[in-house]
Structure formats: structure tokens, C-alpha cells
């Protein structure tokens, strides 16, 4: 799903006439800012984005600039199938004296998205869910609090339903007396 799809859907919900994601306008800038705010909120609070990749360690260190995405938190470092203890520093991760290629599992965030960028979310999140969040933020920034609350309630309800983990339960056996 592309950010432009979400913006187009949000513009339709809001009722912006003549909105286009291909030409620069103040409405496009506002909607992009709103979408980035909602996306950041969603990723930081509800759906942590996780990646696993092979990274080259030299002298026990791997720079964060060598990673594909911007690192938020390192979860695990593995080499030859075994976990390696590590320490996170502001610009690099240190894994003892290990040198070579290690597999690093980490949480990341994408930063600011442009209209042509792909939005990385689990498959259950549709552009409609994101669009109602964008509409909520848009109305809030314009000062339309009632409309903002309406769409925020819908967005929060949808996110809650999509991220909820259902607990399995077991029915105890019953006997007839």
C-alpha cells in the first residue's frame, strides 16, 4: 500500500474537492503531515516494525548506518546459530570481540514518508483504517474537535480490533449426573 492511496482515501472522507497527490498543494502537505503523525503513533504504540538482516561486524562493532532501516532497538544478535551478548551505543552496536557477518534482529522506524513511499504495515491494516486516522488528525489540526473525536474513536476501535490478541480458552469437560 502506498501513502498516496491513503491520502486519496482520506481526502475523500474529509471531502476535499479537486485533491491530487501528483501536484503540490497546501492540502497535500497537511495530509502528508497528518499521515506521518498517525503512522508514527501506530508504529511506536501498537505495531513495532521488526526486521532481521545480516550485518558485518568489524572489531566487535556494527554501525547503525550499515542497517537497511533506522534502528530503534536491537533485540538479538546471532552468529553461527548462537546468540551473542551485545551492548547498544548511540552510533553502533557492540558484540564483544566478534568479527564477521552476524544476523541482527531489531525494531525500526521509517521516519517521514513521501506520497510515493510504501507504507509498511501488517496485512490486516487497510488503507481505510489509516485514512480515518489521517482524517481525525486533519480535523484536529483544523480545530474541528467533534469531527476529530468521531474519527479518532473509529480509528482507535479499528486499531484495537486489529491488534488485539485473542486468548485461547479451554472448556472443562462436563458430565451428566
What are the salient characteristics of this protein?
38% helix; flat; 4 helices; alpha+beta; 177 residues
Description:
- There is one protein chain.
- The protein is an alpha+beta fold and 177 residues long.
- Among the domains are: 1-47; 49-109, no CATH class.
- The protein contains 4 helices and 7 strands; from the N terminus they run H-H-E-E-E-E-E-E-E-H-H.
- It has helices at 3-14, 26-45, 127-142, 145-163, and strands spanning 49-57, 61-63, 70-79, 82-83, 87-88, 92-94, 100-109.
- A hairpin with a 3-residue loop joins strand 5 and strand 6.
- It is flat and about 60 Å long.
- The mean pLDDT is 90.
Compact overview of the structure:
The protein has about 180 residues and is an alpha+beta fold. It has helices at about 5-15, 25-45, 125-140, 145-165; strands spanning about 50-55, 60-65, 70-80, 80-85, 85-90, 90-95, 100-110.
Structural class: alpha+beta
Main sheet attributes: strand count, strand direction, barrel closure: 4 strands, antiparallel
Strand segment count: 7
Q: How large is the count of helical segments? A: 4
Overall helicity? 25-40%
Shape: flat
**Which strand order do you get reading across the main beta sheet?**
1-7-3-4
- One letter per element, helices H and strands E, the order comes to HHEEEEEEEHH
What's the mean pLDDT score? 90
Instruction: Show unreliable segments.
Output: none
Distance between the termini: 58 Å
What is the rounded Rg?
22 Å
The share of residues in extended strands comes to 15-25%
Amino acid at each position: 500500500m502506498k501513502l498516496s492511496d491513503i491520502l486519496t482515501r482520506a481526502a475523500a472522507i474529509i471531502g476535499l474537492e479537486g485533491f491530487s497527490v501528483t501536484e503540490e498543494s497546501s492540502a497535500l502537505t497537511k495530509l502528508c503531515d497528518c499521515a506521518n503523525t498517525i503512522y508514527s503513533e501506530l508504529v511506536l504504540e501498537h505495531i513495532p516494525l521488526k526486521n532481521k538482516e545480516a550485518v558485518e561486524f568489524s572489531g566487535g562493532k556494527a554501525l547503525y548506518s550499515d542497517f537497511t532501516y533506522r534502528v530503534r532497538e536491537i533485540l538479538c544478535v546471532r552468529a553461527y546459530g548462537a546468540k551473542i551478548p551485545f551492548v547498544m551505543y548511540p552510533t553502533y552496536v557492540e558484540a564483544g570481540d566478534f568479527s564477521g557477518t552476524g544476523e541482527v534482529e531489531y525494531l525500526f522506524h521509517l521516519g517521514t514518508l513521501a506520497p510515493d513511499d510504501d507504507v509498511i504495515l501488517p496485512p490486516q491494516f487497510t488503507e481505510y483504517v489509516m485514512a480515518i486516522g489521517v482524517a481525525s488528525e486533519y480535523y484536529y489540526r483544523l480545530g474541528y474537535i467533534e469531527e476529530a473525536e468521531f474519527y479518532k474513536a473509529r480509528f482507535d476501535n479499528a486499531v484495537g480490533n486489529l491488534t488485539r490478541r485473542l486468548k485461547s480458552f479451554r472448556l472443562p469437560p462436563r458430565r451428566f449426573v
